[in-house]
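Deviation from plan, reported transparently: calcium ion complex.
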Amino acid sequence: QLSVSLGTSYDTDDGTHIMSLTMCFAQLSGMNDNYTLREVKPVRLEPVSKRRYTSVAASPCPNSGRLFRTADGFCNNILRPSWGQSLERFKRYVKADYSDGKGAPRIYSRSKLCRKEPWLRPRRCLLPSARTVSINVHPPKKVTAEHSVMLMQWAQFVNNDLTATAIQQPEEGVSPCCKNTKKIHRRNQGCFPIPIDPADRFFKTECLNFVRSRAISTRITRTNPREQQNLLSSYLDASNVYGSDQDTQDRLRGDNGRMRTSARNLLPKGRDGDCIRKNAPFCFDAGDDRVHVFPGLTALHTAFVRYHNYIVDDLKQHNTGWDGDRLFQETRKIISAILQRITYTEFLPEVLSDATMNKYKLKEGNNNYQYNISVNPSIAGGFATAAFRFGHTYIPILMVIDDKEVPSRELFNNPQFIFTSLKSVVENTLSDPAQLRDRSLSEEITDHLFETAMGSFDLVAFNIQRGRDHGLPSYNTFRKFCNLPEATEFNSEQFDQTAQKALEKTYRSVDDIDLFPGVMAEQNEKGSILGPLFNCILGQQFSDLKLGDSFWYETTDSRRGFTRDQLKAIKQVSLSQILCQVFDLNRIQKNPFRHKDKKVRCKKLTGLDLRPWYEH
Ligand code: HEM
Ligand SMILES: [Ca+2]
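Because the crystal trials were delayed, the predicted structure below was used instead.
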């Protein structure tokens, strides 16, 4: 079923090849025959984050005059300039757990039961296949949520501002991965295929191809184990709109501070192989290359490029002395601030409990934001590889577009409806329900992800396998990190009865439970759609992203922040109002994340008052 052609690859400094996940999937699924990789620039082998300056004077970062964010996040922290910069390593909240202590995936059970004959050397048991965990612990169930598909889309849009893991290409001769099933568990190389049971409900192959994430360093030891690399600036800085490096930013920029667009004010034309182009005239270009993954996501990218241009056009009229650079940077700063504010004041309260919002100081303050230069704003593995993947549970089974039901499997990576029916995509992203946040996930993503004639994938199995690839410790280890009691038995009270049974059927030991299934199986915390461990990991990461960002929108540093009046104006804007404005809607829910919320006339919502930016 899966015959794989790996196409072109790019050599980096160290001779390995990297690409992002979408590219990898596109290739593995044979999405496009003439698929070629976007050029990947040579990558620093060693992160420079060990470098620490003890004084502002010694730091290479400017610290006077009017300051704007760099494209890649460099120098946001003037003493640790590479913290949060694109191409840096993921940080870890909990020490890595590799099966060889260095970099081989976590594959062995803690259980001692696998010695068949007592006189022989005990044999270590393997963990269950990630596909088996997916089938047993995350079966499909059709229950819709009070939340709209827009909540799922915002989560993904934010995610694509924060994290994209660099993927290694399998070595020549090793690919396709599945040809080497015999030794799969012992490999510390590019391939780590997911075994499939012959009785699998859907897949008829022996295994699913899986390419390991790129190791940031080739010098791996027990004290310096394998680490993964984030291709994005980790800051919530609208890098999904503007790119995570200067070249991408330059490519996306138009004249006079504007962003480039294409006919009918859509995103600019990108490279042919970046999407399924069957019925679309072209693929788009955007700050993050996963822009086509779902129509609502493409719509949000379109929304913020349009909004950028709207602001630039207004400021240009009033500040005739500003050149294109100034117009661009001032607007980019407003857009990043609005993205931060929507995320922390509109989105997070929908998913985290009030207690978590308070504990991690995630609520908007009153002129009392304190930047903390010793907080590392990089993304943690446990967040990217498990916790923030909670959004996958929300992916709908279908979407209504132009009054027709379209199964999600036909929407992945397919931009055709953006060209034909953008307004309908937006309206239905707002009014269609998301799937309920529970441990079940739809077959659209567990059997039919990125489906083509060549085959398809299981996203849940990938989440679990990715965790093992990254040496992510088990669920219980993270419970300990969060000061939560560890599960000692499968019938621990944080799981409901059916989840207990599913976990027990799948794992030999409670200490084997992978983070993703464990956290997904937890019962929700009061006032949250997520359990306590989710609340802790997400709370901690969003706290780091806020306290460790010297350009945080509420900063009182006059060189990096806004004036009082500007901030006041920013605090009037809402996601609903922006969507109304850029898509010319008539009515919308005040809360775009709840599909049943009462709709109001768009005219009633307050927009961004740009007068505080006018220079006269
Ligand atoms: C239409 C919906 C979506 C599809 C088809 C999709 C697909 C994928 C795929 C294929 C991966 C890579 C898996 C791997 O090999 O490790 C991934 C990663 C990820 N997804 Fe999704 N996803 C969707 C929505 C979401 C949503 C709503 C969220 C919520 C926040 C989310 C969060 C993540 C995260 C955090 C990662 C890891 C990113 C990285 O560091 O590389 N995804 N997704
Ligand atoms: Ca970013």
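The radius of gyration is 24 Å. We consider this an acceptable substitute for the interim report.
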